[in-house]
Amino acid sequence: MNERDAVGRAPQQSFRIRWAVACGLLVLMALVLVGRAVHLQVFNKDFLISQAEARHLRTAKISANRGVITDRNGQPLAASMPVDSLWVSPQELARAPEYIPRLARALGLEPGALARQITRNVDKDFMYLQRHMNPADARAVLDNGIPGVHVLREYRRYYPAGEVTGHLVGFTNVDDDGQEGMELEFDGWLRGHPGKKLVLRDRLGRVVEDVERLEPPSPGREVAASIDLRIQYLAYRELKAAVQENRALSGSAVVLDAETGEVLAMVNQPSYNPNDRSQYAPARFRNRAITDLFEPGSSFKPLIIAAALESGQWQPGSRVDTSPGMLQVANKVIEDEHNLGVIDLATLLARSSNVGVTKVALSLPSEQLWSVLTRFGIGRPTSSGFPGESAGLLSPYENWRPIAKATMAYGYGLSVTPLQLAQSYAVFAADGVMRPVSLIRVDHPPIGRKVLSTDNARAMVELLEHVVAPDGTGLRAAVAGYRVAGKTGTARKFDIGGYSSERYTAVFAGVAPVSRPRLAVVVVVDEPRAGEYYGGAVAAPVFSKIVAGAMRILAIAPDKPVAPSRREAQPAITAANNP
Questions:
Q1: Residue tagged active-site, from 63, 271, 298, 299
Q2: Residue 499 Cα distances to 294, 412, 413, 495, 528, angstroms
């Protein structure tokens, strides 16, 4: 072999060696990769699966519907609507701060404020961005692909009747917890129990698959309220009109079914719309018919007369001498506007004699009178269970001096709520039986408690019918085609230094129809300031309109034929004692 051939083979051998080394290294690397893959996928399979699940499998909450509240006929008063809430993991978003301005624009927020909020919560895994969004709006934000942003399905309450039922139904907070009214009272029934599910999320935290349902959600129970939405609308309309017409401070009206104790309507003015959270102020959302106390004035006189009949000392036809139209008790002179002379109990109530009812009250033993009044529920909360219900005020009989007993006879020195007064009048309508007040529909009348004898209860209804007669203080409470019974009340409000001569509470309480009483209705108008302030002029017409409409709605047959040519005379309010 010559020298030239030897020189040519050397590079070829060097290339083959390098090629063999390179191929050997590639084969070795391939074997290492295959070996690693086999090790991971065969021998380390469980570990890898657990790590993947830890990063992508999450337990998510399945929101549960809050129960629906309906009226007695199934009309919805409160229902839940699906909404979406956006939340973010501050830790994830903090690792990609360049997305914060985009997120702020999508939410209509100031980027700097959002960045500061993320920074303050950077050690947390959960932070709400915006609650109760329209699902389409929430999806639009989510489609921006911002890391750490997630959506949570929730429910928001909607109140179809708005301000008409606001005080009774109440409202929930942003977390769907009952805060007022029936939403609070029956929160345990209405609240649903959320479920749980396993979901698979992508690297941006978006749910790509529902893996497994761990626990199904349990929706809340439906609650059927006792109110009839038709009567509720009627009462609300008439009360609102009266409060506006008389430029009154406030007003309340309650309609009870005397046969069952159910509240068929309960309205207040001013009201609020529970769909508008900006109106959530205690002064607006408190249910005045249950929480606010007032001195009932002459509307309390029938309870004194009922106690007198129960004592056996007085009969429906008994007479009392009111001459000379005044009576001094201790250092106070109690007066009637006119000297009515010797009158029977029907005239006493019809003309609202303060002197007459004072003499009746003073003739009764204090303990006996107190016993009857407490049986009527005075000084005790009703059984409604409504949050914040007031008990009223009735002092122990041991503390009664003659002057306290005298003023109490015509409705001063004690306090009641409109609901308490309605429950008391329902006793007259139910033949002397007091049934528990119910805000939910009852299928069968509950067992009541005997307060008055049947004869005395019926006698009281007949006596109170005279108040709505042409010479009574409550003529404007009359209802065409129906016999009604009730009592007016006009109470001066207490002010600094004594009772005001300019601020009044106008009241009318009554039952209908007299032949077979079904409804007990109370109307209270606080501080009418348009000129009229007597209960017979301000509250009685509201009572008349509510009862007339309710009778038609409930299909209660008329019990008072009206001659076609007869025209109802407009009353003149003449009994200014305390009508």
A1: 298
A2: 13, 10, 11, 5, 16
Please list, in sequence order, all residues whose beta carbon lies within 8 angstroms of the beta carbon of residue 489, skipping any fewer than 6 positions away: 296, 297, 298, 299, 300, 411, 505, 506, 507, 508, 509, 535, 539, 578, 579
Class of domain 229-278+285-553 (CATH, top level): alpha beta
Asked if residues 463 and 316 have their Cβ atoms less than 8 Å apart, the reply is yes
pTM of the model: 0.81
Taking the C-alpha atoms of residue 542 and residue 549, their distance in angstroms, rounded to an integer, is 11
Q: How far is CA 547 from the centre of its chain?
A: 23
156 vs 172: CA distance, rounded Å:
9
Of 346, 564, 566, give the one whose Cα is nearest residue 471: 346
DSSP annotation of 43: I
pLDDT per position as a tens digit, 262-316: 999 999 999 999 998 888 888 788 999 999 999 999 999 999 999 999 999 999 9
* pLDDT tens-place string over residues 404-449: 999 999 999 999 999 999 999 999 999 999 999 999 999 888 899 9
59-224: CATH topology is Penicillin-binding protein 2a (Domain 2) (3.90.1310)
Residue 298 among the catalytic residues: yes
Short-list 205, 218, 181, CA closest to 67: 218
Q: Where are the domains of the chain?
A: 59-224, 229-278+285-553
Nearest to 504 by CA among 488, 481, 486: 488
Distance CA(215)–CA(469), nearest Å, equals 66
Q: How far apart are CA 429 and CA 516, in angstroms?
A: 8
| Beta-ladder partners of 257 | 519
CA-CA-CA-CA dihedral for 416, 421, 427, 429, to nearest 10: 170
